[in-house]
Amino acid sequence: MKISLKTLFALSATLLTSTALADNSSRPDSHAPISIMGDHTHDEGEWMVSYRLMTMSMADNYIGSNKVSAQQVLQNFMVSPESMDMDMHMIGAMFAPSDDVTFMLMANYLSTSMDHITRMGMNFTTETSGVSDTKLGALLNINKDGNSASHINLALSLPTGSVKEQDQTPMGYARLPYPMQLGSGTYDIEIGATHTEFFEQSSWGIQGKQLFRTGYNDLDYRLGNRFNLNSWYAHNLNQSVSLNTTIAYTNQRDIKGQDSALNPMMVPTARTDLRSGYFWDFALGANFKLNGHQRLAIEVKKTVHQSLDGPQLGHDWAATVGWQYAF
Ligand SMILES: [Cu+2]
């Protein structure tokens, strides 16, 4: 992979011209299942814009891989979370100044809602919504031919999401715990690698990514690092539809430092040492190639195993729909 000054100068020239698509990009499975980001690169001069909506649902408290009841959580805390729903709108852009490098931008808008029960038996819900963190990325090609493609994934996450969200709780209008905040508050770095193999009617791919948090945010904490591994298989039904299946592993670490506005005795979500754990997801999806430029995709994901340092709300399921337009 080489990123020369020449390729950077080429950027301005290629803004005005549009070059032809190559080989694999015409297949429905040339893009990974829609929940996987930074899975493909583009050819010189090519642009892509995309929109994704992901809806995610969390339910049940876990200690290790066992579910525990809200009553058990309430033996040690004043409040127990019961469930959480999250909607994320993601707007993305990709641009390749050369065949070797593809730049990415992803802006996110997040809405979350968490249901709780108190020791007194009262239910309440907290909600937040707003802009989340913004990701700038670069995909560096290692190789790309008709049969396989590999690239390095690099990204910088900018702290555009708030870490000071508040809402009405039984304790008054107060700062919400860590999982309800919109961003990390820190500059985060993601490093990963992606490899895809293509066959006549099918393909498979694997992508590993490690997210490192740097420094501490305005409230003197930083979220835990996160490792994510996705592997997928796709089968083309015809020239415009592919079905895919994904197995994903995520490992999340604890928070360092703490937000002094949160009381760790109140609710497990305010505890910095009850954030770590790992979970396995299984997903089924489909990619649809509408014409030379547009794609639609859908994916439904179910968490099949998790082990959490808890009590901590478990992952349940997620669904993603997306639209992509390349030109
Ligand atoms: Cu793209």
What's the SSE blueprint?
Elements (H helix, E strand, L loop, with lengths): L4 H12 L30 E18 L1 E3 L1 H4 L5 E17 L5 E18 L4 E9 L2 E11 L3 E11 L7 E4 L2 E4 L12 E11 L3 E12 L7 E2 L3 E11 L4 E12 L3 E2 L19 E13 L4 E33 L1
Antiparallel strand pairs: 1-2, 1-3, 1-17, 3-4, 4-5, 4-6, 6-7, 7-10, 8-9, 10-11, 11-13, 12-15, 13-14, 14-16, 16-17
Bound molecules: copper (II) ion.
Structural account:
The protein is mainly beta and 327 residues long. It has a single domain, classed as monomeric porin ompg (Porin). It is built from two helices and 17 strands. The protein has helices at residues 5-16, 70-73; strands at residues 47-64, 66-68, 79-95, 101-118, 123-131, 134-144, 148-158, 166-169, 172-175, 188-198, 202-213, 221-222, 226-236, 241-252, 256-257, 277-289, 294-326. An eleven-stranded antiparallel barrel has the order 1-3-4-6-7-10-11-13-14-16-17. The protein has a two-stranded antiparallel ribbon with strand order 8-9. It has a two-stranded antiparallel sheet with strand order 12-15. A hairpin with a 4-residue loop joins strand 4 (101-118) and strand 5 (123-131). The protein starts with a helix and ends with a strand. It binds copper (II) ion (CU).
CATH topology: Porin
CATH class: Mainly Beta
- Coarse shape: elongated
CATH superfamily assignment?
A: monomeric porin ompg
Strand content: over 45%
Question: Strands across the major sheet, in which order?
Answer: 1-3-4-6-7-10-11-13-14-16-17
The percentage helix is under 10%
Q: Output the structural class.
A: mainly beta
Uncertain parts: 8-22
Number of domains: 1
What ions, cofactors and ligands are bound?
A: copper (II) ion
Number of strands: 17
Major beta sheet, specifics?
Answer: 11 strands, antiparallel, barrel
What distance separates the N and C termini? 24 Å
